[in-house]
Amino acid sequence: MPGHGVSTTAFSPAAAALPSFEAGARQGRLRQYQLQLIERIQAARSGALAARKELGVMLGGRPCLLDLTQLGEIVIAAGVQIQGVPLAQDWYLGLAAMRGRLTGVVDLARYMGEPACAPDNHCRIITFSPRLGLNCALLVERVLGLRQLRTMQPVSLPAAPPSWAAQALRDSEGQQWLRLDLAQLAQAERFLDAGFGGLAVHKDIC
Question: The dihedral of CA 156, 167, 161, 41: what is its sign?
Fold first, then answer.
């Protein structure tokens, strides 16, 4: 694994080994939750949900929102084998075969200047929508479910945040969320240059 990224074995099934009965029950609950979430995401995309909702995820201990139309699928990270790439930045974990395609996996928390994502049973890998034109996926600490935007209020951010993370919102419970635009992230110069020989200056850290 390049740099100080997560080990390529960190997400092997053995890393999450549990007694067979307990593991089977937990896996069943995870699959059921994932299927329900995918159904709700598909409903939101088709306009079946009256109010606009986005997917809440945890990145570096920070709650973030992702536009459903920019997402592909959500995968349990423990079942994905990631092959490290030599001489890559520590936030670029490597390549994984997902649905028969080689996909670059990025630890977005690390990219944002936060500590690297610690692998556990809550970690998920979320792929970019094909329409973004980039074979990429993000490692997140956990998926928090769908959040309704109409109940949130804008919050000011520090000066000159990166364009892909330029909006913050506060929900009715006082929790602040950072709203991410993956379409703009997919065009960011630093994001597209993951090699050590690339951009050394972190121009777009949140």
Answer: positive
